[in-house]
Design brief:
single chain, 15 helices, 454 residues, 2 domains, globular, Aldehyde Dehydrogenase, Chain A, domain 2, binds NADP nicotinamide-adenine-dinucleotide phosphate, alpha/beta, Aldehyde Dehydrogenase, Chain A, domain 1, 7-stranded mixed beta sheet
Length: 454
């Protein structure tokens, strides 16, 4: 895949980048390897200063950075600017809490002194997706750098301008040479990078297929990996729920980022006693969404990031309808240049339809009717993914069962699933393993070292 910035709203190629050649990749990996022993000895307070300076730059340049994101991958401009702000938040969060999260702990044993230290591992390769082109990178980079690791970013091939802008932010923030670098390379170079003895660990955010490749390469080298993969998150609505609030949030939860979020709600599992009313409210709000130029602040849905994604979404919708799903809204690509797809609702989706099992990365909602809480939980768990889940109920006993029994890395009650620096983020099943954010995230790429002294 060419490394190119192509505006998905117009189809216009902004710029194509030649990938880094072998010599340039070698230069950058060597620089990272040389920087690591120095950076790990840099006091926490100094590392925190770099993160705080990065946060200041993100905020100062949020409008311009938002435009870079929107033009390159199509998210609405307001969301893009908010993404830059959220990156500033995660930098400040780890600048403030990183040292405490990694403080040496004392453990009482037979020793005069014993405990646990958290030492950095080395250069970490980050293979990142285009959908949150800043947030995904910063939520890796902030804890990794704070822990004393150095970062090498291989970003998705369709967001090189974002990748280079992030490198520039760290440079301008005073990160020393080699502490954070972008590699402009395709995915065909990832396995060789993982095999490089100077690379200590790898983190991937991306699709299941990429997860299999990266997990296999890391396994072959016995290297630490974190995999943040796809999701088919359930959104359960039970009879005691605040229905208008649930329907309004459901639309937001499905269409955030033009429907291209791993934790977007994708399967709406609604009790049959309220399913008709929920569908009516939901379809009405989906129909009212404003689709168009993502640089227009009033637009709620921009284009899908590439023509290939639009074609795949269309194929999954068509095959789901052919398998018996009822098309309640949309179901087609929109005319014109750009990769636009109509907000779509599939109802009464049968198990055999792709919409019941595949992750649809676009503004396409699938509605399922269930007769009981037991059935709702069973349908929610009937997926190979396990990233997030949202459930709506005002019944405390139902809430307890949902929180305990849903197989996912996060359960949100009466709210939509979102990432937050203070809470761990990650999946189970084929949504991956490992955690980002919070204390758990900064402890992924460290050597948990036991210390014992007679
Ligand atoms: P993708 O095609 O898997 O690409 C993600 C990254 O992996 C890109 O840098 C890509 O490079 C690279 N890549 C692709 N195939 C690879 C392979 N075989 N070996 C090594 N690297 C490979 O995913 P995407 O379409 O960009 O992103 C959407 C997916 O990411 C969705 O499934 C979404 O749910 C998931 N996601 C998960 C999370 C989470 O936190 N769990 C967050 C956001 C997104 P190239 O671009 O050069 O191909």
């Amino acid at each position: 895949m060419a490394i190119a910035s192509i505006n998905p709203a117009t189809g216009q190629t902004i710029r194509t980048y030649p990938p880094h050649d072998d010599a340039e990749v070698e230069r950058r990996v060597a620089l990272a390897a040389r920087r690591f022993p120095l950076w790990r000895k840099t006091p926490f307070a100094e590392r925190a200063k770099v993160l705080l300076a990065a946060a200041d730059r993100l905020e100062a340049r949020k409008q311009a950075l938002g435009r870079v994101m929107t033009i390159e991958m199509g998210k609405p401009i307001g969301a893009a600017v908010a993404e830059a702000e959220k990156c500033a938040w995660v930098c400040r969060f780890y600048a403030e809490h990183g040292e405490a999260f990694l403080a040496e702990e004392t453990v009482a044993t037979d020793a005069s002194h014993s405990g646990v230290r958290y030492d950095p591992l080395g250069p970490v390769l980050a293979v990142m997706p285009w959908n949150f082109p800043f947030w995904q990178v910063f939520r890796f980079a902030a804890p990794a750098l704070m822990a004393g690791n150095v970062g090498l970013l291989k970003h998705a091939s369709n967001v090189p301008e974002c990748a280079l802008a992030i490198e520039e932010i760290f440079r301008d923030a005073g990160a020393p040479e080699g502490a954070f670098q972008t590699l402009l390379v395709g995915s065909d170079r990832v396995a060789a990078l993982i095999a490089d003895p100077r690379i200590a660990a790898v983190t991937l955010t991306g699709s299941e297929g990429a997860g299999v490749s990266v997990g296999r390469a890391a396994g072959a080298e016995i290297k630490k990996a974190v995999l943040e993969l796809g999701g088919s998150d359930p959104f359960i609505v039970l009879p005691s729920a605040d229905l208008p609030a649930a329907a309004a949030t459901a639309v937001k939860a499905r269409t955030i980022n033009n429907g291209q979020s791993c934790i977007a709600a994708k399967r709406f599992i609604v009790h049959e006693s309220i399913a008709g009313e929920f569908e009516r409210l939901f379809v009405e709000k989906m129909r009212a969404l404003k689709v168009g130029d993502p640089l227009d602040p009033s637009v709620e849905i921009g284009p899908l990031a590439t023509p290939a994604i639009a074609a795949e979404v269309d194929d999954l919708v068509r095959r789901s309808v052919a398998a018996g799903a009822r098309l309640a809204l949309g179901g087609k690509r929109l005319d014109g240049p750009g990769s636009f797809y109509a907000p779509t609702v599939l109802s009464d989706v049968p198990d055999a339809a792709p919409a019941a099992s595949e992750e649809i990365f676009g503004p396409v909602a699938s509605l399922f009717r269930v007769r009981s809480l037991d059935e709702a939980i069973a349908v929610a768990n009937r997926t190979r993914f396990g990233l997030g889940a949202s459930a709506w109920t005002r019944d405390a006993a139902e809430r307890d069962r949902l929180v305990r029994e849903i197989e996912a890395g996060a359960v949100f009650i009466n709210g939509m699933v979102k990432s937050d620096p203070r809470l761990p983020f990650g999946g189970v099943k084929r949504s991956g393993f490992g955690r980002e954010l919070a204390m758990q995230g900064i402890r992924e790429f460290v050597n948990v070292k036991a210390v014992w002294e007679a």
